[in-house]
Every structure is written in C-alpha cells, then in structure tokens.
C-alpha cells in the first residue's frame, strides 16, 4: 500500500510511470477492490463459514497477497489444460471456407492467396500471408466470429466464457486493448528490461506457450509478437488464434505463418465477405445486399439469444481496436519532425496560419 501510494503521488505530480510501476499499481488497486466483498465475511457473524463456497464459485475473489504458491500453480495448470483443449478444438474445426473470387487489382494478393489455399497447388509465401492478414482487421474478425469461436477465444485468454455473444466480444476486446497498450510499453522499454517472471507473465497473457520453454525462446517469441503487431500491423485477434492453433502442436517445424494461413482459411464466411467488400471496389450490388442480409441475420440471432437467456445487461462496447492500433503504431512527433513539417508549409498556408 505504501509503495502504491507513492506511485499515485508520482503519477499525480506528472511523472510517467514505467510498465513495472503501472502493473504494481494495477495489482494493488485490484486487491483493494477484492477486499471490499472479502471483508464482509469478517464483519458479518458466521459468514466466514461460507468463505470456502464463495472461493469455489469465485476463485478470483481472493487477493493476490493471500494466494499460496500451490494455488498459483493450480491456476497455471488449469489454464494450460484449457489452452490445450482449445488448441485441439481449433485444429479439429478448421474448415476451408473461402469467399468468392475478388477481381479488383488492389486485392490481387487476396485473390492469389485464396486460390493457392483452395487448390493446394502451391503454398502461399510468407509475404503474401502477411499482406492478406493485414486485411482482416481486429474489429471485423471479432464482430463476425461465431459463438463457438468466441467461447474458445475467451477460455484461451483466461476470460469467463459466460453471457451473450455481445458480452464475450466486449471482454475479449477490452483484454486485447490492454494487451495492445502493454505492447507499446514493452516495446518502448525493451523486452530485455523484463525479468524472468515478468517475461513469462507477458507471454502467458498473449497466449504464448510458456511451459517447458527456455527464457531465451520466450524472449524471442515476445519480440516476434511485438514485431508482428506494431511493425507489421497484424491484428492481435489473428495472432491469439494462431497461438491457440500451435499451442498443442507436436510439430516443432510449424511456424506462426503456417498457423496464420490455417486461421485465415478457417474464418467464418461472414468475415471473408466483409473483407472482400472492403478490398473489392467493383463488388456487385447483389453481393453488397447479401452482406447486409448476413449482418442482419447476425443481429437477429444475437437479439434472440438475449431474449432466450433473459440476460438483458446493456453492454456499451464502444472500443474500436483498429483506431487504437493506429494510434499506438504512430511514431511520436519530435521537435525535429515538427520543424520539418513547418518548413514544408506552403507560403499561402503560412499566411493563413498567421491570420
């Protein structure tokens, strides 16, 4: 508490907190929030008798300071087993569902990639895979994933897979938002600044396998993640699904690019159709109408799901991951870049600026 109070004062004074300090402050705040319901078992007479039942139903209720090493190991083993099941399920349900041929010149890579996957004559190159993966935006993928995939992704990210599709999407989106912000913090401070436990925690939160993996390999995997998300601008949703796909793989030669190809080919038709509409400027009115009908059907399905379950909790999911990604991947503007921009201003623009 004393250390966290100092961090609050430091932040209030205008000093920027490091990633480690931010995580320490977040952890302390979470523990304080957990202590509020936890304290009721102490205040209310005989309520402590119900504590084991409450902890069974809500295992995250216990503050981190009260967690023993064995409890942490149990959670880690449980998460590992869940991720292996999700990985196996994802491999079994991979289906080649591809959109119709795209004719626009701007989407030539997309067309060629799909053709190669469909015919199986030639394996798409690494460069092609990266170019096509960029077309599948985070929000497009999340908004069109089916419930089975949303549940699997929630479990893989250690989130509660309960509630409507809208609730699952919100949880996943918020989790990915925190990961994207953490990506920028790690990239700024450097992967090598993390100690072994921090490196393991960072990899685990991104779905990267940590059990039995050497520290040097974890360091390499995290650097690759940062390179793909921040420099190559590959959607985090695809990377999480790719990590899930390779998690239980016995084939050590299988790369992240092989997993990306498998995940892209298994996307629901709705995802492919939305991407096709975005890249194909010559798409017919009929296809646009079909796309609108697909989205309308998804809305009706989710509305019926809410009515059937009786869960009418309003979810204000206003997070747009693609906008956040663009902001995070922007290079910070220095004094030199500002001066360079001003130097390139047209004289007419300068007159307007002066006025």
TrEMBL record:
Keywords: Membrane, Mitochondrion, Mitochondrion inner membrane, Transmembrane, Transmembrane helix. GO terms for biological process: intracellular monoatomic cation homeostasis. One of its GO terms (cellular component) is mitochondrial inner membrane. The keyword Transmembrane helix applies. It is a single-pass membrane protein. Pfam families: LETM1_RBD (PF07766). Residues 324-355 are annotated as: Disordered. It is found in: Mitochondrion inner membrane. Signal peptide: none annotated. InterPro entries: LETM1-like_RBD (IPR033122), LETM1/MDM38-like (IPR044202). Residues 78-269 form the Letm1 RBD domain. Its main location: mitochondrion. The chain crosses the membrane at residues 32-55. One of its GO terms (molecular function) is ribosome binding. This is Letm1 RBD domain-containing protein. It comes from Cyberlindnera jadinii (strain ATCC 18201 / CBS 1600 / BCRC 20928 / JCM 3617 / NBRC 0987 / NRRL Y-1542).
């Amino acid at each position: 508490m004393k250390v966290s109070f100092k961090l609050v004062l430091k932040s209030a004074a205008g000093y920027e907190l490091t990633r480690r300090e931010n995580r320490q402050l977040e952890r302390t705040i979470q523990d304080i929030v957990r202590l509020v319901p936890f304290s009721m078992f102490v205040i209310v007479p005989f309520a402590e008798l119900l504590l084991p039942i409450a902890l069974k139903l809500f295992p995250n209720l216990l503050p981190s300071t009260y967690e023993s090493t064995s409890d942490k190991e149990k959670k880690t083993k449980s998460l590992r087993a869940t991720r292996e099941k999700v990985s196996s399920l994802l491999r079994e349900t991979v289906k080649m569902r591809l959109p119709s041929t795209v004719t626009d010149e701007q989407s030539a890579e997309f067309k060629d990639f799909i053709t190669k996957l469909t015919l199986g004559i030639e394996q798409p190159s690494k460069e092609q895979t990266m170019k096509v993966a960029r077309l599948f935006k985070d929000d497009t993928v999340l908004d069109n994933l089916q419930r089975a995939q949303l549940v699997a992704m929630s479990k893989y990210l250690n989130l509660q897979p309960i509630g409507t599709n809208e609730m699952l999407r919100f949880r996943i989106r918020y989790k990915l938002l925190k990961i994207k912000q953490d990506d920028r913090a790690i990239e700024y401070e450097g992967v090598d600044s993390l100690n072994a436990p921090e490196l393991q925690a960072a990899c685990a939160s991104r779905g990267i396998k940590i059990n039995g993996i050497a520290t040097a390999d974890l360091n390499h995997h995290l650097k690759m993640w940062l390179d793909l998300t921040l420099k190559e601008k590959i959607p985090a949703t695809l990377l999480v699904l790719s990590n899930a796909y390779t998690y239980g793989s016995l084939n050590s030669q299988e790369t992240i690019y092989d997993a990306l190809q498998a995940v892209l080919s298994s996307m629901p038709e709705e995802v492919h159709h939305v991407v096709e509409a975005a890249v194909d400027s010559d798409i017919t009115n009929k296809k646009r109408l079909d796309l609108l009908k697909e989205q309308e059907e998804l809305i009706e399905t989710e509305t019926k799901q809410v009515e059937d379950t009786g869960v009418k909790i309003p979810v204000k999911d206003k997070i747009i991951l693609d906008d956040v990604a663009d902001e995070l991947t922007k290079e910070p503007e220095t004094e030199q870049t500002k001066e360079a921009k001003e130097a390139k201003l047209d004289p007419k623009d300068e007159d307007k600026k002066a006025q």
